[in-house]
UniProtKB/TrEMBL annotation, chains A, B:
Gene3D superfamilies: 3.30.420.40. It comes from the Bacteria. Belongs to the ROK (NagC/XylR) family. Pfam families: ROK. This is ROK family protein.
Amino acid sequence: MVAVDVGGTSIKAGVLGADGRLGPVDRTTTPPAGSDGAPVLDAVEAIVRRLSDGGRPAAVGVVVPGIVDDAAGVAVRAGNLSWRDVPLRDLLASRLGCPVAVGHDVRAGGLAEHRAGACRGARNAVFLPVGTGIAAALILDGRVFSGDGYAGEVGHVDVGHDLPCACGGHGCLEAIASAAAVARRYSAATGTPVAGSRDVAELVRRGDPAAVAVWDDALDALAYGLSLLTGVVAPSVVAIGGGMGESPELVLRPLAGRLAARLTFQRPPRLVGAELGDRAGCVGAGLLARELVA
Amino acid sequence: MVAVDVGGTSIKAGVLGADGRLGPVDRTTTPPAGSDGAPVLDAVEAIVRRLSDGGRPAAVGVVVPGIVDDAAGVAVRAGNLSWRDVPLRDLLASRLGCPVAVGHDVRAGGLAEHRAGACRGARNAVFLPVGTGIAAALILDGRVFSGDGYAGEVGHVDVGHDLPCACGGHGCLEAIASAAAVARRYSAATGTPVAGSRDVAELVRRGDPAAVAVWDDALDALAYGLSLLTGVVAPSVVAIGGGMGESPELVLRPLAGRLAARLTFQRPPRLVGAELGDRAGCVGAGLLARELVA
């Protein structure tokens, strides 16, 4: 199985072995976007051929961001990639001559965390990667729920602030609590550029007041978002992914406290760090490919 | 099949025929609550015996509010009935000598609206009765999703106001947008008691400014709640139940406009009135009973 995770900035790919483990991850820069997807399709084709040593893989799994119709294999809308209704599965299958599964990057990551990561064994769980954007994969009654491709968009629910969001709305969770928003807001508040949210986290550890303020805003908003997920779908476990999820003392513990303060009779989910890191989408892509030929 | 819907104020019951239609609905007042459920169990037993003409029904379905563990048949927590962990299914089965299905009133109503009402044919839908309280039944991938009994509590998500809620929280949707809240807030604002939200609706039709203000607050909050449901589970249809759902011009149309204003790339659900009225829970109870013996 060749597994490919197409992101807005990089394409990650690898080979999923029969044991369900992903081999070394090949990383390349995502080519400039085109609305028909051609430059990205060229890149994916080249990567798959390289990873297959010229042979034909049994199946290929490709995951992309945005709104994805998994059943039809169509990338309905992928913001960063400028795609609209690209029939990715059929285009790649005809180029590669093998079955291709197309899925959503975050839902595929959730599938991977459920099969082989932090959500293992949970009947109802959420995988919540906090990166450039925020979206959730919902595992409900043991299956990844897609909502016709539209479910899990918790990054764009209104959590009650007045900042604008790239989606065109206001008050979105993503606009205040994504890793990108944390870095951007710290830079804007202090005039000091930072490379990313990890730099802000380091400043929080050192007690930098502006970093603490930005971090607090992000945690409050994430707790709000988690309270909505808890009220609506009631996961027993939420696995936080992305750089922020890696820190128990800076993220998981304060988030659990703030979430508990927002709940009354609801069942508080256990908050844990995701386990598969930035390989989750790629592992999930491999699992989707394996389902095609199982 | 005998179907029973135990509410905080009344018990509705009827016989579900082989054609899936519910016969005349028998209504009695819910007896005073007891933590072991005994007075209510006595009442349910008497109703079932009366509706069975002294015979033994093939199966009985009973639905109750609160947190219900459908699989175990346990009423985990039913606020108005003061129940905690009442093993309703086993208690009733031993009294009645027939199989008993226990479910949640709103989820059972959602099942009924999906099988035979406003959500018919929808793969992903929400049934949202707006009554004394507010809770949602989620139909996801064609099945009612319970979240271990905790899903759909959209009445207690924070929609950004500062009013206290009976659950102990603040800002809950239910505290500003339930039929009870609308009536209570109008009475508080004007000093004029009203019997319920229908009276307030009538005043809105006549242009009463205080009624319009209370109604607007409720619609804004409901649109907020619907935007959260849309972002998280992406239903293609939302069936609004309760008295408020019956009015296209006062509820459905203004709600659709306010919801659209809150969405950007998300798929707006179609908003419709529920079709089964206050019989939905009872029809659902009958369907649950039928599944036991199918």
